[in-house]
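Q: Sequence in, structure out?
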Amino acid sequence: MVVMEQAALKKRTAYFSIISNTMLVILKLIVGFYVGAVSLVSEALHSGVDLVAALIAFWAIKKSLVPPDEEHDYGHGKYENLSAAVEALLIVGAAGGILYESVLKFQEAEVPESLEYGIAIMVVSIVVNVLVSRRLIYVAKLTGSQALEADGLHLQSDVWTSVGVLVGLALMQLTGWAWLDSVIAIFVAGIIFRAGWRMVMESAMELTDASLPEEQENRIVAIIESVPEVESCHCLRTRKSGSYKLLDVHVLFDGNMHLSRVHAVCDELEEKIRAELGTFDILIHPEPAGAHDPETKSSQYEDSHRRSEE
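A: Exactly. Output:
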């Protein structure tokens, strides 16, 4: 899929998420306040966070698609990582607010009226979020968008909280146990917090330029060393900026090979890596084999630390 098609698909998908979340927030708030159930209001707040997250993701995707400029030589992909971090903090904050309201509700617990309306809206919420989250995650994997993936995973967690609220409302209507309302809301808060904390950790890894997964790095090395003219490679370094991946690597060639042929092989390596692993900013440092002792990332970092201490 070409870059422009990916950009258009990402924008359409983010807009779709915004529309669905707006609809669910409005419906849950209306029914929640009408019924008077704190668990429903907590679900509305959860969907409200989803809506804010979808808006942030939409903004981040637009910003990340801006081409590199003089101030951002490597593009604007980090805006996607930043949006995922903001979403995670919103989720954690929402969990804390729901927990606070749930504890207060214990002191004045009573069975809400017209619970059938709450049950109906939760069924609608579950169906909508299942469909939308699947679409978001599918497009995220297709385009490599962390912002869409964060939004999709967020909605997936909302599906499970909605199921918990639905079961709790049904039990409350059958048994008349008013305390279930607060228990359900606390359950929702726990799930939200868990999802938010996981996203905080993942976003922190991306924002601090963590390396790509080991299996991807191993595959990159295998692609490079599969070319006959390449004798070996070392010092592979990788990172990710939004859906944009970057790498630099030292590649060893026969010292007698003509520079024009070395350049052609480097171009071939770049094409092979991008064809299999998607968009990459690639920097290859060619070296004559046997010119010096083999290096590793660890040895380079040790040398740098030693020099900085001298």
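DSSP finds nine helices and three strands in the chain.
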